[in-house]
């Protein structure tokens, strides 16, 4: 998962991000999930706090941030809702 904070006025474009990661990263390095946050939590040494992100996982029922997952069939990052989360958890949707 990649947790990001968009610049003021910027919008998230799942199609463009998918194309960018496909063209610039090996398949294993492209994030399967994107979490859009209002602000990034940082430590006293300006590193991103990841422990809360790891603990929360990617359950849209628990997280208020916008979540997206990499859908290779659509060639885009698409919104991750409760139904899609359940399909992933129940292994009906392969990542």
Automatic annotation (TrEMBL):
An example molecular function term from Gene Ontology annotations: long-chain fatty acid transmembrane transporter activity
Coiled coil stretches, renumbered: none
One GO biological process term: bile acid metabolic process
Gene Ontology cellular component annotations, sorted alphabetically: endoplasmic reticulum membrane; plasma membrane
Alphabetized UniProt keyword annotations: Ligase
Family the entry assigns: Belongs to the ATP-dependent AMP-binding enzyme family.
Protein name in UniProt: S27A2 synthetase
The species this protein was found in: Sterrhoptilus dennistouni
Gene assigned in the entry: Slc27a2_1
């Amino acid at each position: 998962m990649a947790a990001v904070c968009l610049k003021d006025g910027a919008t998230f474009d799942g199609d463009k991000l998918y194309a960018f990661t496909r063209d610039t990263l090996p398949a294993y390095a492209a994030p399967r999930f994107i979490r859009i946050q209002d602000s990034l939590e940082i430590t006293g040494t300006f590193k991103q706090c990841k422990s809360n992100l790891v603990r929360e996982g990617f359950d849209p029922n628990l997280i208020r941030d916008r979540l997206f997952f990499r859908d290779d069939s659509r060639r885009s990052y698409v919104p991750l809702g409760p139904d899609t989360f359940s399909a992933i958890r129940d292994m009906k949707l392969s990542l």
